[in-house]
Design a protein that fits this description.
By secondary structure, the protein is an alpha+beta fold. The chain has 13 helices and 23 strands.
Length: about 600
């Protein structure tokens, strides 16, 4: 009867200890998802009911089937970081393998014991089990033999059964939080990298951003040479210091060469055990090499190294592999931009030279005539253009005046304009009449026909002795004749040159008087457009000519250009603009 009472009392006492314990376990499980906090509170909780000297929580790496210390008390950090216990080995490994608690009264008599801390005599290892799956082991040790009892075993098993869920939840939460942060950072990195178009600046930034993801010690980006035979160091960091590495690595050689050749990431836990490793950094122990692939073509390799063996994980490999695709795109964008920038630089230099040549092909001075003022201006829509004007010397005080507009814009139009100018000058010594000149140029261009290329020309001959002007037109806007302040169109029209073999052209003759003005222009003047879409047009042009009829020819040209520019202010010029104005001088010889 007394024994029964004593046993009941023991049970009551045990129950009184267990109930608060379970409440504390529930509190730990329900109030935190931070893994480090959870593990620390487990250690504190166990100490309240079991006096231990050494404590450890080992978690299971399911792929390698190894236990590793995630939290410990009494182990040096170096030992805890280094130790890996295979499932089935040691006391903790056996507990994990059997999925049951293992109590060793004296480890000196147990061959399974793996010595990690001196003077340990007793050990108790209890598996952490979630849904019939071992996720780790709680391990406590003492320097006293027989220190742990069956009651301790039962209490620790009870704690472990409840805490396993909390630890697993905290692990999952930590993993998900880390993955979320990684994904957000990857997104930020990808967005930032695509905005950097300078290759050196880009590679430097890649290194800086990667250091936010992985605490590497050595970092290199190697790019494949144009022949695809070797990887060249393009950017390298050693312990956060930028260094220049000159040695190239043939494709297929070394770990980076293998990554390029095999087109896959290569993770090496210990380079000293890998025969492929090229010993360029004696301090390196672990390495991660990831190929940079763009449009199914390897363009380089991203290489990370660390002095610690096994530093890089499969999570690191997945993260860098994901990021490598964005880095490859950014590198190609930067290289393409640099290539375009070089080409644009060459093009700008070529265009500047072409512009200078075109300006020099234009008349450097206007003909000096006794009874005629001449003024002209050419303004290309781009660096160079397809408009032209020229003055050709005839005998007996006569001069040929030409203004032209080539189809299209830019370099092709400028080259075609130079061709037309050459043809005009080749025919000038024969002193053809305006209609004959247009027919001759047309014949030459038809012989050299270029698809979609043609030119509109007005050709005039001024006779300074008789004050007569002969005019023929092949498609330019009809010129303006201003007599005593009143303007009218010269109804000269015709087909552009270079399109039709048998085209014929009309010719008009004007007997000029003092202060008469003739203005010739390309359609870029009439077509100048303002923000409202309104053309400058002929009405505005003739009004300006009439208003300026008392001014010199040069003032008329300047006024036309200024008015067209003011009209189209804020709108990009889309066509070349050319104006030639001639004005009969006020003092002219009397006609007989």
């Amino acid at each position: 009867m007394i024994k029964a009472v004593e046993m009941a009392a023991v049970q009551v006492e045990a129950q009184s200890r267990i109930e608060p314990l379970l409440l504390e376990v529930a509190d730990v499980v329900n109030t935190t998802l931070d893994l480090d906090t959870t593990l620390r509170r487990v250690a504190e909780l166990v100490r309240k009911v079991i006096d231990y000297e050494i404590f450890g929580i080992l978690l299971l790496n399911e792929k390698t089937q190894e236990l590793y210390f995630r939290f410990s008390v009494g182990h040096s950090s170096e030992v805890a970081e280094r130790i890996r216990v295979k499932v089935g080995e040691g006391v903790t490994g056996v507990a994990a393998q059997r999925a049951e608690a293992v109590l060793v009264a004296d480890v000196a008599n147990d061959p399974r014991y793996i010595s990690a801390v001196p003077n340990v005599r007793s050990e108790l290892a209890v598996p952490l089990i979630v849904k019939n799956r071992v996720i780790g082991v709680i391990d406590i040790e003492s320097p006293q033999p027989d220190h742990f009892t069956e009651e301790h075993k039962r209490l620790l098993t009870l704690i472990a059964s409840r805490m396993a869920v909390g630890i697993e939840n905290a692990r999952l939460y930590t993993r998900m939080t880390r993955q979320t942060k990684t994904l957000l950072l990857l997104n930020e990195i990808a967005r930032e990298l695509t905005s950097i178009l300078n290759l050196d600046e880009l590679l430097k930034r890649v290194g800086e951003l990667l250091s936010q993801l992985i605490d590497f010690q050595m970092f290199s980006i190697l790019l494949l040479d144009p022949a695809g035979e070797k990887l060249q160091h393009r950017f390298s960091l050693r312990f956060q210091e930028n260094i220049q590495l000159k040695h190239d690595i043939p494709t297929g050689k070394g770990i980076v060469g293998a990554a390029a050749e095999e087109r896959r990431a290569i993770l090496i836990k210990d380079v000293k055990k890998d025969p492929r490793y090229i010993d360029t950094n004696p301090e390196t122990r672990s390495e991660l090499a990831v190929p940079l692939i763009y449009k199914d073509k390897v363009i380089g390799v991203l290489d990370l190294e660390h002095t610690k063996k096994g530093f890089f994980s499969e999570d690191h490999q997945r993260t860098i592999t994901t990021l490598a695709a964005q880095i490859a795109i950014a590198i190609e964008n930067a290289r393409l931009y640099e290539q375009i920038a070089r080409q644009e630089g060459r093009l700008e230099r070529d265009l500047a030279m072409a512009r200078e040549l075109q300006v020099r092909l234009l008349p450097q001075a206007f003909p000096q005539l006794g009874h005629l003022e001449i003024a002209a201006k050419f303004s290309p829509a781009r660096t160079i253009g397809g408009d032209l004007y020229d003055f050709l010397t005839y005998s007996q005080s006569r001069v040929g005046l030409v203004i032209g507009d080539v189809s299209g814009k830019g370099a092709p139009a400028a080259i075609y304009a130079a061709l037309v100018a050459g043809i005009l000058r080749s025919h000038a010594p024969m002193e053809p009449a305006p209609a004959e000149m247009l027919a001759a140029v047309n014949y030459s261009l038809v012989e050299r026909r270029i698809d979609a290329q043609f030119v509109s020309l007005i050709y005039c001959i001024w006779d300074d002795a008789s004050l007569t002007l002969q005019v023929a037109n092949s498609g330019l806007p009809r010129p303006v004749y201003c007599h005593k302040g009143k303007t009218q169109m010269i109804e000269a029209t015709g087909l552009p040159l270079g399109l039709f073999e048998d085209a014929e052209y009309d010719e008009f003759v004007f007997q000029a008087e003092a202060d008469d003005i003739f203005v010739f222009f390309s359609d870029g003047i009439l077509d100048a457009t303002n923000r409202a879409g309104e053309l400058f047009g002929r009405t505005r042009l003739e009004k300006i000519i009439a208003e300026c009829s008392t001014q010199p020819a040069d003032s008329i040209v300047k006024s036309i250009f200024k008015a067209a520019a003011d009209h189209a202010s804020g709108v990009e010029t889309f066509d070349d603009q050319t104006v030639v104005a001639i004005k009969v001088k006020g003092s002219t010889p009397k006609r007989t």
